[in-house]
Amino acid sequence: MHRNEKDWANSVAEKIYAKSKASAERSKDKIPYLTVNGIFDDWSDRINWWTNGFYGGQMWQLYHAYGDDIFRQVAENIEEKLDGSLMDYMGMDHDSGFKWLLTSVANYKMTKKEQSKNRALLAAANLAGRFNPAGNFIRAWNDSGDGNTAGWAIIDCMMNLPLLYWTKEQTSDPRFSHIAKAHADTAMKVFVRENGSVNHIVQFDPETGEVTGTLGGQGIQVGSSWTRGQAWAIYGFTLSYLHTGNNDYLDTAKKVAKYFAQSLPESGFVPVDFDQDRDCEWEDSTAAAIAACGMLEIAKCVAEEEEKAFFHNTAIKLLTTLEQHRCNWDCATDHILEKCSAAYHDKEHNFTIIYGDYYFTEAIFKLCDKELFLW
Questions:
Q1: For the residues of 122-189, what is the DSSP string, one character each?
Q2: Contact in structure between 140 and 94 (CB atoms under 8 Å)
Q3: How far is CA 22 from CA 19, 26, 275, in A?
Q4: What is the dihedral angle through the alpha carbons of 208, 211, 214, 217, rounded to the nearest 10 degrees?
Q5: ∠101-102-106 over CA atoms, to 5°?
Q6: Exposure on the CB side of residue 310, measured as CA atoms within 13 A
């Protein structure tokens, strides 16, 4: 990385620190998801929501980088609240990595607290228990008992597999990595299309494991390219490569990343779906931040200089576009990243979402060697 890039990243990190310290003081008892008039809301009463670990993860990143105790206090408060989800069977799903890698595993890495390790192991055991050996996939969501989603798997789950890899390292029990690799192998075959785009949801017959169809999920429709799904695949397959050394995972991540880069509009602003109309102004800045994290890691893994530069420079383009045009640096407001969207068919778009802030922070910290690697 050129010196001016690192200088830029350090300057952005300082702005993240200043803004996040101010917001942490206002958010000591919150689990943020969105902002209302620039101030974080609180999802403590919706403890099973999949994003509830991200603010804790951001706090641990900041504590690791700067050492201010307020960040640790906020993160540990969120971790303790998440016990309510850990003890709710119907509230547990495939997103245990998002919740407990960024809270309990982070805490254990920083403090070696056995209680945090125990929480993460319990979450990992639940995640492993969602594995369906008939189709070699991890089930996404629970349902009310009618079985409609028993055969559903989603691309997002690639980001949760590191909880299983971590558990294998902690326990020396290979079951956990076997399950993670089996799911990743299946995802390579049934989620990733020939052109590098990905399905969001794949349906299996839960009895036989046969693939019965795909769903558009949070994209426009079946067969479209929901950008955050692309980003989950880029980063998720890269992480499975980092944990296993399996080059097939890295090749898959590269394939999806190249599709993502080639589909980017000249502006660098990432749409909700690459197949949406050109005059549609709905964006998802979270997809840009997640994809940048994945591409920065891919660049570290490839040997050929031209390829390394391609992934690194694409990540830098995404991040500089966000920093210059989609970040709010006013310390009187809580959020950083703007113009995010959860799903194409939602009523609201171009708002703020907590995981956008997390992944933007993680990406910037990668560039200036401040990152606490949590995956």
A1: HHHHHHHTTEETTTTEE-----SSS-TTTTEEEGGGGGTHHHHHHHHHHH--THHHHHHHHHHHHHHH
A2: yes
A3: 5, 7, 39
A4: 50
A5: 80
A6: 15
Cα–Cα distance for residue pair 81/75, rounded to 1 Å: 10
Would you call 211 helix, strand, or coil by DSSP? strand
- How far is the C-alpha of 152 from the C-alpha of 51, rounded, in Å? 20
Tell me the average pLDDT across 64-71: 98
Give the whole-angstrom CA distance, residue 283 versus residue 272. Answer: 5
Mean pLDDT of the chain: 97
Strand partners of residue 131 = 138
CB 358 within 8 A of CB 98: no
Q: Is the pLDDT of residue 170 over 70?
A: yes
Backbone dihedral region for residue 317 (phi beyond 0: left; psi -120 to 50: alpha; all else: beta): alpha
The region, left, alpha or beta by phi > 0 then psi within -120 to 50, assigned to residue 349 is beta
Look-up of token digits 């606490």? 372
Q: How confident is the model at residue 1 (pLDDT cuts 50, 70, 90)?
A: low
**In what helix (H) or strand (E) does residue 23 lie, and over which residues does it extend?**
helix 3-26
Tens of pLDDT, residue by residue over 78-92, are: 999 999 999 999 999
Residue 155 pairs with which residues in a beta bridge? none
pLDDT tens for residues 221-234? 999 999 999 999 99
